[in-house]
Amino acid sequence: MGLFGGYQNPGPGINPNAPKKKPFFRYWELLWRNMGKLLTLNLVYTLFHAPLLLSLIFYMETHNKFTVPMVIFLLVVQVLLVGPTMAGCTKVLRLMVLDKPFFFSEEFKKGFKSNFGASLLYWLIDLLVILSVVSGYWVYPQLAQQMGKGVFIMFGISLSIAIILLFMNYYLIPLQVTTTLKKSSVMKNSFMLSVLSVKQCILTTVCIAAMLGITVLLLWINSAFMFIVAFFPAAFIGFTVMFIHYPVIQKFVINPYYEQTGEVNPESDEEPDEEERVFSDSSDTEEPVKDDSAKKGKVIS
After folding, report:
1. Do residues 183 and 169 touch, judged by C-beta distance below 8 A?
2. Lowest-confidence range among 20-24, 203-207, 281-285?
3. Residues contacting residue 31 through CB under 8 Å, at least 6 positions apart
4. CA distance 240 to 31
5. To 10 degrees, the CA torsion angle through 265, 271, 272, 277?
6. Looking at the domain assignment, is residue 181 inside a domain?
7. How many domains does the chain have?
């Protein structure tokens, strides 16, 4: 491997004491580094939504006695898959944000299987709120004509609940995947964290709206861009959510736990004590090795 220079020459190494990059630059660095995995993850996420696509095709292309039952069956299967799929994706995205090596398929399977029931419950709650807001959009204007504009107060309350739940969703699945908390504790902590990080929640919502807007714009320009849905934007939205909100989880949930128990925090950036240190990287203090290959040595015949 010495075609382009001597491999004996010491390189600059990685300075362990180098300053940590700002979040903005860190985001793009991790995004670029994991670009291939994100595209793969988005494709996996899309494949797990195949029942929804099949239900639409079946509904539009068939007109017989099996149409409605088959559509209902496919939609039920899709509802059962959405939550666990998000849990599997979150398991992978967490390790991307922590910049740790992992096996893609193994981590996805762990997140999918071990969090199936909990993630399904959270998704059913989301689905119930979504359906209530959508139905309210049509029902409340009709009720206002009969009962007066005071009915819109109830609609405003339902919208407020939907926004709170949206902010909670930035923490629900990550907390479920990361911790061993009970479902009730996960929901309570998600609410508390969403209150403590309103700015981050607003920033995340704006980023999600921008990504979805770009996708819709491309589809509006030309339907041929439909193929990009298989690779964008689901995984990139999930990566953004995890990057912005996982530090909040670390600050208020993970770090306090290890501080109370006295255990070593595997996610901490702090340097270990000298007694616990097994290997010390001193690349910034090493001196280059002198190359004496040019000198002629004695030849033993």
Report:
1. no
2. 281-285
3. 38, 236, 239
4. 9
5. 140
6. yes
7. 1
Q: Which domain holds residue 157?
A: 23-261
Which whole number is the average pLDDT over 147-160?
Answer: 80
Sign of CA dihedral 116, 122, 125, 130: negative
Q: At what angle do helices 183-196 and 116-147 cross, to 10 degrees?
A: 60
279 in a structural domain: no
pLDDT for 212 equals: 96
Q: How many CA atoms lie within 13 A of 30 on its CB side?
A: 22
> Considering the entire predicted model, what is its pTM?
0.83
| pLDDT number for residue 147 | 78
When pLDDT is cut at 50, 70 and 90, the band that residue 83 belongs to is very high
Write the CA distances from 294 to 8, 141, 290, 297, 301, integer angstroms: 13, 89, 11, 9, 20
Percentages of the chain per state (helix, strand, coil), in multiples of 5: 70, 0, 30
Whether residue 299 lies inside any domain: the answer is: no
Give Cα separations from 57 to 61, 64, 269 (angstroms).
6, 14, 50
* Contact (Cβ atoms closer than 8 angstroms) between residue 34 and residue 301: no
CA 153 to each of CA 128, 129, 132, 227: distance values in angstroms, whole numbers, following the listed order: 20, 17, 15, 42
| Least-confidence region, from 10-14, 21-25, 133-137, 228-232 | 10-14
Whether 130 is covered by a domain: the verdict is: yes
Task: List alpha helices for 62-103, DSSP H.
Answer: 67-97
**Ramachandran region of residue 13, left (φ > 0), alpha (ψ -120 to 50) or beta?**
left
